[in-house]
Amino acid sequence: MVRKPDLAQENSVRSGLQAAGVEDDRVQQVLSMGKASNLPLGLRTDSALAANAASVKNYNAHKVCTYADEAGTKVLVQVPVNENYHMPEDLRTSQDLYRSYLESAVEMTSPMHSALNPARGRIGSACDRPRS
Fold first, then answer.
1. How distant is the alpha carbon of residue 82 from its chain centre?
2. Are 60 and 109 in contact (CB under 8 A)?
3. Judging by DSSP bridges, how do beta strands 61-69 and 72-79 pair with one another?
4. Contact 39, 95 (CB under 8 A)
5. What is the pLDDT of residue 129?
């Protein structure tokens, strides 16, 4: 996970969202929900993140967009609360999370694959699935 305290403070995130054609209301949602204060207890500190690093791979998430900054290409994902009940209590939240990962750390699956084989910890593209 990219350790940024607030996605709204990163101009590259906003630029990536706009370049991907994400609607303004969703951009605002991503930026407001992408704050360190919204992280579950199990991810709020560096030591908690280190202790839960293996479990983070089990999140179900949807790709929102890709963007680049000085550290390289990153993937912005939505971690829907209603698709992650399988996670330990200290890794769950009451609302969706928006997090940024290095592209090399993300494993993408197709939505069809996920529907046929509900493996945990895979990221499907939000653009490829209808949103409810």
1. 14
2. no
3. antiparallel
4. no
5. 38
Q: Cβ(83)–Cβ(95) under 8 Å?
A: no
Tokens of 127: 């653009």
Distance CA 125, CA 47 (A): 30
Residue 66 half-sphere exposure, CB side, CA atoms within 13 Å? 12
125 phi-psi bin (left φ>0, alpha ψ -120 to 50, beta other): beta
Q: Is 128 helix (H, G, I), strand (E, B) or coil?
A: helix
Residue type at 107 in one-letter notation: E
* pTM: predicted TM-score of the whole model, two decimal places: 0.76
> Burial, 118: exposed, middle or buried (Cβ in 10 Å; 0-12, 13-18, 19+)?
exposed
Give 75's contacts (C-beta < 8 A, 6+ positions apart).
63, 65, 66, 100, 101, 102, 103, 106, 123
Instruction: Give the mean model confidence (pLDDT) for residues 107-119.
Output: 57
- Cα of first residue to Cα of last residue in the chain, in angstroms, is 27
Is there a contact between 17 and 76 (Cβ–Cβ < 8 Å)?
Answer: yes
34-68: pLDDT as tens digits: 988 889 999 988 899 899 989 988 999 999 999 99
